[in-house]
Design goal:
The chain contains 4 helices and 2 strands. It is mainly alpha-helical. A hairpin with a 2-residue loop joins strand 1 and strand 2.
């Protein structure tokens, strides 16, 4: 039974790993939305930029919540499997050590998920807030624009490199 649960958790990790294209998909949707607003509805550039960057921000917020829900399921699964597996093989001390091992694996999952989500949500927020409305019109805050773009770039590159580093990408 323990081996079946471990196999299920590993397959769940592989399925979640396939969501690596979601950050790029959100970025593509935001660009298409900006193009639609500017070309079809004839909205000013500033309005198209602000609306599409706001869409991108909320896209990443929603996916951060979805990712967080999957991480909670995986954390509970690793803790359960570690505790039960340790208790079956080593009694109360084994259960304690199994919970520790499950917690360590869970901590690594949470760390990776939180870092990526902070990069995406923070980068999209900085991109959105880079265009500032003043009395004379709109102006760009270049610091926010560059840092927001870099955060998104680092987040996308980190998801691309981690999905390519898997030994078994066949499924």
């Amino acid at each position: 039974m323990i081996h079946g649960v471990l196999f299920w958790l590993c397959s769940l990790k592989r399925k979640i790993g396939k969501r690596r294209s979601i950050p790029m998909f959100g970025l593509v949707l935001a660009v298409l939305y900006a193009a639609y607003l500017y070309a079809i509805t004839k909205a000013p550039q500033e309005v198209a930029y602000l609306n599409s960057s706001n869409f991108l921000f909320w896209w990443y917020v929603v996916w951060a919540v979805v990712t967080g829900a999957f991480l909670v399921v995986m954390i509970l699964g690793f803790l359960f499997v570690g505790g039960v597996g340790g208790a079956m093989s080593g009694g109360p001390l084994g259960a304690f050590l199994g919970l520790g091992a499950g917690g360590a694996i869970s901590g690594l999952l949470v760390l990776g998920g939180v870092i990526n989500n902070v990069l995406f949500v923070g980068g999209a927020y900085l991109l959105h807030s880079a265009l500032v409305h003043q009395a004379t019109g709109y102006t760009w805050d270049m610091g926010r624009l560059v840092i927001g773009g870099l955060l998104l770039l680092i987040g996308i590159l980190s998801t691309r490199s981690s999905s390519g580093s898997s030994l078994n990408n066949s499924d």
